Every structure is written in structure tokens, then in C-alpha cells.
């Protein structure tokens, strides 16, 4: 049975699945989901716990051996199998499928894994767990969902955030749920179960936001100018290599330019989105980018990327960070800010 994070508590209240798979790259919710399973197992008498750490030389016979071994301390056991990789090969797949066909009522197996790709979700071992127990995919909380997530968590800890407080906290911890949870705990210790306003929030927390390069391009396509500049500042503070940032932006702009060209050739947007394999959740972003910028503008942005690349290599004048700042601002919809590229202008000798 496939469920999401918010359904887990309700499922565990009714029954304890004999095998659970929790997968995803969001660490806080993965950790908390596993803790919920452990607590539910302990309440039902699974007081002994064994942990199997999967790695390159992992012996998959350990799973069956541990599950079938007699317990010295308790009648019921929880076995945690922590997968270092979601690619477990034929031996791993066979071991998990075999276990799911011969489940012991006195053993609960909790499997934790990184994010599973679509092909892995269709594999035999995942289907076996899905059929025999519970599969929970942990998804990152989007920037739009984050203020609500933080507000609910604050209220669950007794805090009473005034309007705007959760949105302000979201700016400070965006992309880092663990930091958000930690900041909320600090606020609880500092203010207790009381109302909290923006000034109290700012006095009690730091700036723990973490971003990646794809956050930058997505925010630009959404037209979120303030957020784009905040993300770029955060990436610079995180010492994200500028060539990596430029690569992500140029990749996005090049894809948009290709689609804009094909639109002029008479192809429909739905055809293009399918041909370019645009994910469903990114289709609105791509549409927004194509509506905001004509083909000529996108070609101009690509020329700017080439100029910035030369600046990074010291082959052209100018500050490349400033060039990227102007580029993403204009990509997000700001008035024309990017100067015309001067690709032939060499850098002055030192």
C-alpha cells in the first residue's frame, strides 16, 4: 500500500504493517517517519531491535538469517535495513522478495532508502513490499508549502504565530526542514506556549536557508524576482561554484530557446512539452518562461551566458557574479538590465 507522510500516523494507529519501506531524499521527514514506525512497533511489543547496514559488500543472506534466528530477549523484533543505495541488484531484490513471501508475524522489517526512480518503483522488490506492507515516498516540501508546514509545526509545539511569521521563518530556513524544526524548538525554549510576532522571531533565529541551483532557475521561471536574488545570494554564501550555477541556467535557457524556435515552426506547446520530456510539475514553469520571453530574448540570454563564462575564465571584462545577478533578474521578468554581450572584448592583463 502506498501512502504519504501525513497518512502514516493514521495507518499505524489502525495496524502495524509487517514490512515498511521509507524512501526519499528529505532527511527530516524520513527520520520522523522511521521514528513513528519504531514507536508503533514498541507499543505493540516489538522491544528488540536489530540494524543491518547495507553497503557494497553487504551479505543479503543476513536478512533471512536475522529474521529466522531465535530471539534471546523478546518474542517480537524490529529489523531495520538501511540501504545505502536504491540500486540493490539481483541478490538484494531476491532477498526482499523472498522475505515478503514468507513474512514472520513476530518480525517487522523497516527498510529505509534514498529516493527511488520511476524504474526502481516498478522493480520486483518494491512491488513485493508494496503488496505485503507499506511504501512511503518522502517528498521535499516546496517553497509554496513551506509556510503552512512551519505554521502547523509551530502550533503543534504550542507556539501561536501571528500572521506573516511562518512566511518569514520560511525565508530563513528554505530548503532545510531540519533547520526549520530546530529553529522552532529554540523558539519554544525561548518563548514557551505564547503568541510570537515577527520581531520575536527575528530575535530568536538565524538564517539557515539552503538552496540548490535548480531552485534558482525554477524561481526565475516563476517570475519571483525577490526570491531569485535571495537564492543567488544564498548560493554565493554557500560557496556554490559559479560554473555550476551558470551551467544550470544555460541548460534551462537553451531548452526554452529550442522550444520557442519549434513553436514558431508551428508545433503546439503540448507536443513540445512531451517531446522534451518536461515533468508534469514543471510544465507550468516552462509555459510561464515561454510566455514571458520571445525567442530573440532567449537567444540574447544565451549570449550573456557565453559572456559570463568568458568572465569566469578571465577572458572577458566584468564581474561574473554581477553578470549572473543581472541575468537571473531579467529572466525573472525585471526590466532589461543585462548589457549587450561583448564576446570579443578580452580581459585586461593583470
Secondary-structure class: alpha/beta
The low-confidence runs, each spanning 5 or more residues with pLDDT under 50, are 338-350
- Note the gap between the termini: 65 Å
- The tally of helices reads 17
The ordered string of helix (H) and strand (E) elements is EHEHEHEHEHHEHEHHEHHHHHHHH
Q: Approximately what portion of the residues adopt beta-strand conformation?
A: 5-15%
Averaging pLDDT over every residue, what do you get? 84
Tell me roughly what share of residues is in helical segments: 55-70%
Query: What summary fits the major beta sheet?
Result: 6 strands, parallel
Radius of gyration: 25 Å
Which geometry do the CA atoms define? globular
The count of DSSP E runs of length 2 or more, i.e. the number of strands, is 8
Strand order of the largest sheet: 1-6-2-5-4-3
Report what the structure shows:
There is one protein chain. The chain is of the alpha/beta class and 350 residues long. 56% of the residues lie in helices and 10% in strands. The chain is built from 17 helices and eight strands. The strands form two sheets. A six-stranded parallel beta sheet has the order 1-6-2-5-4-3, sandwiched between helices. It has a two-stranded parallel sheet with strand order 7-8. Strand 4, helix 4 and strand 5 form a beta-alpha-beta unit. Helix 11 packs parallel to helix 13 and helix 16 packs antiparallel against helix 17. The longest helix is centred in the C-terminal third of the chain and has 23 residues. The C terminus is likely disordered.
